[in-house]
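User: I'm putting together a small comparison set for a docking exercise, and I want a reference complex before I start. The sequence is below, and the ligand is flavin-adenine dinucleotide. Could you produce the 3D structure with the ligand included, as C-alpha cells?
Assistant: Of course. I'll restate your input first, then give the C-alpha cells for the complex.
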Amino acid sequence: MKKEFVIIGSGLGGLSMALRLSSKGHKVTVLEKHSTPGGRLNQLKMDGFTFDVGPSFMSMTYELEELFKSCGINQMPVNLQELDPIYQVFFAQHKRPFRIFKDLKKLEEEFAPLEPDLAKKADAYLKRAGEFFHDTEDKVVKSNFDSKLQYILKLTGVPLKHLPYLFRTMWSEVERTFSSEEVRVIFSLVAFFLGSTPFQTPSVYSLLNYTEMRHNGYWKVEGGMYALVEALMKLLAERKVEFAFNTEIVKVNENGGKVTSVTDQNGKEWKADIFISNSDAASFRGQILKRKNFTEEKLDKMHWTLAPFTIYLGVKGNIPTLMHHNYFLGSNFRGYADTIFTSSISPQKPYYYVNVSSKSTPSCAPEGHENIFILCPVPDLRFKPDWADREELANNIIDDLSERCGYDISANIVTQKILDPIDWAKTFNLYKGSGLGLAHDMDQVGAFRPKNKDEQLDNLYYVGASTTPGTGLPMVVISSRLIMERLGKEYGIV
Ligand SMILES: Cc1cc2nc3c(=O)[nH]c(=O)nc-3n(C[C@H](O)[C@H](O)[C@H](O)COP(=O)(O)OP(=O)(O)OC[C@H]3O[C@@H](n4cnc5c(N)ncnc54)[C@H](O)[C@@H]3O)c2cc1C
C-alpha cells in the first residue's frame, strides 16, 4: 500500500530518501528550513561567481550509481570526473607542492628522495587497508543493527587479523609504515575528512586511504557539485515530490507511540503516515524531542567533528600554482592537531584546504577570474563561541595563501564571503557548528551511533550524517538505502 511521507530536511540524505520513496510511488513532501535544497551540499552565487558551499569531491561513486539504478534511472544524470592527481599538498618546509597520485610509481617519484621504496610500502599499506575495507563494507558499514549485541556479533565475523586496527591510531599506523614526516602526513590527512585528527582517529579508517588511492578514487561532478542537487531536484519534480522551503520543524506531535504530525515555526502542522528526519539525528532527539539521553549536557560530551571556517573569494587573474584541490599545511602537524579541537582562540598559523573549481568549470567565474573556496577546520562553538575575530582569521589565511601560491590574492579580490561556525550552525542546524556531525570513534559508530529508527516513536526514522553509517556524501546515500531496508521489513515497502 502506498504511504504518505514527510522528510524533514533536504540535504543529500533527504533528497536520496525522497528519490527512493517517490520512485516506488509514495507521496513525499520535503520540509526544509533553508531557502534552497541540498543542505551542506549547497551553492552560493555572487557577482558572477558560483561556489559549492561545502563538499567539493566524493568517493565511492558507485553508491550514487546504485541510488539511481534502484530508482529505475539507468543513465547517471550527472557526469563524474575523476581527479588525477588527486590533490597537491604545500608543506611549510618545502618550496614546491607535492602532487598526490594514485599511481604509486608516480607518487614515489614525487616524494624522492624523502621516502625510499614508497611504492612498495604504500602498496602493502593499501593492500592491508583494502582487505579491511572489503571485510567490513557489507557486514558493518552497509548494515542495519537492532541492538548492540547484534552489532558486536557482526563484528565477530570480521577476520581477527584486523584486530590491531582497533587499538592503534591512524598516526601510529602510518608511523609504522613510512619513515618521512611528509609521507606520514599525506597518508593521515584523510582523518580530517572525518572531521577529526590522525592522533584521535582509529587506524581502521586507513580504509579511506584505500578508497581514495586504490579503490574508487576521488571524483567531482561536472559543472560543480551542486549539479548533483539540481539533477535530483529535476527527478523529484518528475515524481511529484513537494517541497516547502523556509520551513523549520520545531515540534513533533505524537499519540500512542507514533508521530501524528510535525509543526513548523509558523505553527503549521504537517501530517503523514511516516516521518523521516534528515536533521542531525543526535541534536534532533535532544532539541526537538527533548530526550534525556540527548540533553545539551550529554550532546556536549559526545565527540563532534571540527567546525568549518569557510571563505569564498572571487579573484581577478588566473593562479597557475593552484589546482582543483590543494592543502596548505604548517610545520607542526602534531602540535596543531593536538590543540585545534579544544582551543578558544583562532589558529595563528592555520592549516587549510583550497578548492578552485573554475580550473575545471570555467563557467564558475567570469573570464580571466578564479573562484577560490577555502576551508579551515576550527574548534566548534562549545570551545570557541565568539567569532568576532573572523575577519582577522580570514585575512591571515588569505595573506598566507598569497605568499605560498605566489599571487597577491588580497589585491585582486572582486567579491568575498565568510561563513564562520555560527553561520554554519544557524543555516543548517549543525550542532554547535560541527561540520560533519558526530565523529566516528568506535563508541560512536555502528549500533553505538544514534539509530536510524527512533527508540520510542514507531513511524519516525533518521537519514543523514549523524546516524548510521556516518558522514560524507556516499555515506548519507547509503543511509537512505538502510532506511528502505527497514521500511521493507516493517511496512512491506520495497
Ligand atoms: C565545509 C564542508 C565540506 C565538506 N566536504 C565534503 C566533501 O568534499 N566530500 C564529502 O563526501 N563530504 C563532505 N562534507 C560532508 C557532507 O557535506 C555531509 O556529510 C553531507 O552533505 C551531509 O548530508 P545530510 O543530508 O546528512 O545533511 P545536511 O546536508 O546537513 O542536510 C540536512 C538538511 O536538513 C535541514 N534541517 C535541519 N534541521 C531542520 C529542521 N528542524 N526543519 C527543517 N529542516 C531542517 C538543514 O537545513 C539541511 O538542509 C563536507 C561538509 C562540510 C561542512
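The pocket of flavin-adenine dinucleotide is lined by residues 8-14, 31-34, 39-41, 54-58, 248-249, 278-279, 308, 310, 375, 428-429, 435-436, 464-465, 471-473, 476 (CB under 6 Å). The longest helix spans residues 118-141.
User: Thanks, that's exactly what I needed.
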